[in-house]
TrEMBL record:
Coiled coil: none annotated. Residues 145-158 have a biased composition (Polar residues). Residues 34-54, 137-158 are annotated as: Disordered. Keywords: Elongation factor, Protein biosynthesis, Transcription, Transcription regulation. One of its GO terms (biological process) is DNA-templated transcription elongation. Residues 82-152 form the Transcription elongation factor GreA/GreB C-terminal domain. It comes from Actinacidiphila rubida. One of its GO terms (molecular function) is DNA binding. Residues 7-76 form the Transcription elongation factor GreA/GreB N-terminal domain. This is Transcription elongation factor, GreA/GreB family. Residues 41-54 have a biased composition (Basic and acidic residues). It holds the Pfam family GreA_GreB_N. The keyword Methyltransferase does not apply.
Length: 158
């Protein structure tokens, strides 16, 4: 799956679009504080502050480009096929110790919902593109681990 555009859930799309709007507003605010040009009339502290804002602007531009690209890739990818785990899917997994858990593959971690695994986490990456009955291997904090996908639900908005 690496290198292929990955779909995202409607909730993740909305969150990324909000982050993008916030970053653009922050960028506009930072850009408005820059004097432009190389003629610094202030002391070294003023010059350092100006350089820091220019660095902030570059960081914001990079993040804006990253989010814009991610949203474009998601639009190209479309939703995952029915029965195939992808961003937004509910996936029930039986772990090596016999426990079963239903997880939601998300684009963004959610501290309020421990059932969310991000698509770029070790378990999330292992689940992407899998179907019911597939065995997966992934690196858990305690070391290598395995699990079996017992079911894959359709993507839906939470």
């Amino acid at each position: 799956m690496a290198g292929e555009p990955a779909p995202i859930s409607p909730d993740a799309r909305r969150a990324l679009e909000k982050d993008l709007a916030d970053l653009r507003a922050e960028r506009d605010a930072v850009a408005a504080t820059l004097r432009g040009g190389n003629d610094y009339e202030g002391d070294r502290a003023d010059q350092a502050d100006e350089l820091q804002r220019a660095d902030d602007l570059t960081r914001l531009d990079d993040r804006i480009d990253e989010l814009t690209d991610r949203l474009k890739q998601a639009a190209v990818a479309g939703p995952p096929a029915k029965g195939v785990a992808g961003v937004g899917s509910r996936v029930t997994v039986r772990f090596a110790d016999g426990t079963t858990q239903t997880l939601h593959i998300g684009e963004i971690a959610d501290d309020e919902d421990p059932s969310v695994v991000t698509a770029d986490s070790p378990l999330g990456r292992a689940l992407m593109g899998r179907r019911s009955g597939d065995a997966v291997a992934y690196d858990a904090p305690a070391g290598p681990s395995t699990a079996t996908v017992t079911s894959v639900g359709d993507t839906h908005s939470r």
